[in-house]
UniProtKB/TrEMBL annotation:
It holds the Pfam family MFS_1. GO terms for cellular component: membrane. The chain crosses the membrane at residues 20-37, 57-74, 86-107, 119-140, 152-171, 183-204, 256-277, 297-315, 327-346, 352-373, 380-403, 415-435. It comes from the Bacteria. Coiled coil: none annotated. Residues 24-441 form the Major facilitator superfamily (MFS) profile domain. Keywords: Aromatic hydrocarbons catabolism, Membrane, Transmembrane, Transmembrane helix, Transport. GO terms for molecular function: transmembrane transporter activity. InterPro entries: MFS, MFS_dom, MFS_trans_sf. It is a multi-pass membrane protein. It comes from Pseudomonas fragi. This is MFS transporter. It is found in: Membrane.
Length: 456
């Protein structure tokens, strides 16, 4: 992966950023690909699993989404532990435990097993995504952050592009070999997480000061640049807060909670799409008389993510170049909301597919730009906690969205009502991002100043 040089950048800066990018980003993308395969392969398993063990659409929606309830409960504690033990150790632990639980999905027998294992998978994976976002904030200056987050987030569309045909291919191969295809898929796709968890322990580096793969000059430039950014953050101007103060103020900060609510709205679109697009395509048979085979389903599902991969990289680079976040994130989300709503209103199969393409482009472009904002005002353990809180609250949409979509399908026999609600949530999230105050001075810093006895 390459980085586009910014204007007025020194040679040492270009060399350092390029080396850090090549060292970290491809590996982190690979971890995210595996995470999303294990999290979302349930969407393809459902095409056979639901009938095999008697899962209704409501129960499926509950089980798919309840992953995020476990995620929500343990994300902030997980990020505090990540800050304490370091990303290398903690991300390795996360990967090994989620790999074991993901593999156990291949042995479930009842709807209760399904729901229980989805909760455990959420608990195991809690802290991975915000942990990586926090890790990137320790390695990349703020002017590069949106594009690096976008590069890391390529793991999502890549997982869908390769995961869709891979998952259905494993299911068909298992059926052909006399196995239950969806069980084989769960087990095979869980193995890389365990292996990469072990690799992670030896490969990742927690801090630039420990990066012996950088030259002394590169390491010094990076440490000094990041240290200067930390000193300039509103949280630290004039104060030296304790870790306990940063944790408390991050949890009580109004801006953090506003960001969490915005993220809740935006991710409603991605979560509903990840879990229900394969079954929406399968429903074309009853709605339009259009038969879509298992492999065709997987290939069509991959298209929106392939287009989104290109769009979100371009959009995040544009945001970095202009150093503007709110309109880039909010505008993309509102485009996504309008697109899927109009497509569902027109109610034609290929127009609905185009709606999903625009939904993926808008939502994933918005998410990548969005994550450049928290790191601009949060620091240290406060950043770990704040990012964890935003992600955990936001990802509750992954619980509410799929359950609501499944329930409304059970009641109405159509996916349209559920996705219209999802479109409204995405649109509100985008509007909230646009309207969010741009004040540079963090409320956390302002609140900490009296407690620390200093002046902001």
């Amino acid at each position: 992966m390459t980085t586009t040089p910014l204007p007025d950048v020194s040679d040492i800066e270009q060399q350092t950023i390029k080396r850090v990018t090549r060292r970290m980003i491809p590996f982190l993308v690979l971890l995210f690909v595996v995470a999303f395969l294990d999290r979302n392969n349930v969407g393809f398993a459902a095409l056979r699993m639901n009938e095999d063990i008697g899962i209704s659409q409501t129960i499926y929606g509950l089980g798919a989404g309840i992953f995020f309830l476990g995620y929500f409960m343990f994300e902030v504690p997980s990020n505090i532990l990540l800050h304490r033990y370091g990303a290398r150790v903690w991300i390795a632990r996360i990967m090994v435990t989620w790999g074991i639980i993901a593999g156990a999905m291949g042995f479930l027998q009842t709807p209760i097993h399904f729901i229980s294992l989805r909760v455990l998978l959420g608990i195991a994976e809690a802290g991975f995504f915000p942990g990586v976002i926090y890790l990137l904030s320790l390695w990349f200056p703020s002017r590069y952050r949106a594009r690096m987050i976008a590069s890391f987030y390529l793991g999502v569309p890549i997982a869908q592009i390769i995961g869709a045909p891979l998952s259905v291919g494993l299911m068909e191969m298992g059926d052909a070999w006399g196995f239950v295809g969806w069980r084989l898929m769960y087990i095979v796709e869980a193995v890389p997480a365990v292996i990469l968890g072990v690799v992670c322990y030896f490969y990742l580096t927690d801090h630039p000061a420990d990066a012996h793969w950088l030259t002394d000059k590169q390491r010094t430039w990076l440490i000094n640049t990041l240290a200067q950014e930390e000193r300039n953050k509103p949280l630290l101007v004039g104060v030296q807060p304790t870790k306990g103060q940063m944790i408390r103020k991050a949890l009580c900060n109004r801006q953090v909670w506003l960001l969490a609510l915005v993220y809740f709205g935006i991710t409603s679109g991605s979560n509903a799409m990840n879990f229900f697009m394969p079954t929406v395509l399968a429903s074309f048979r009853g709605t339009f008389g259009l038969e879509i085979g298992l492999m065709q389903n997987g290939l069509i599902t991959a298209i929106p993510y392939a287009v989104a991969a290109v769009a979100m990289i371009w959009w995040s680079r544009r945001s970095d170049r202009l150093q503007e976040r709110h309109w880039h994130a909010g505008g993309a989300a509102m485009l996504a909301a309008v697109s899927i709503a109009v497509a569902l209103w027109l109610n034609q199969p290929w127009i609905i597919v185009i709606g999903f393409i625009l939904l993926a482009m808008g939502v994933y472009s918005a998410i990548n730009v969005f994550w450049a904002v928290p790191g601009q005002v949060l620091t240290g353990v406060g950043a770990a906690v704040g990012i964890g809180l935003i992600n955990s609250i936001g990802n509750l949409s992954g619980f509410i969205g799929p359950y609501l979509t499944g329930y409304l399908f059970t009641v109405t026999g159509s996916y349209t009502p559920g996705f219209l609600v999802i479109a409204a949530l995405v649109g509100l999230g985008g509007l909230g991002m646009v309207l969010m105050p741009r004040n540079k001075e963090s409320q956390i810093g302002a609140a900490l100043a009296p407690a620390a006895g200093g002046k902001a």
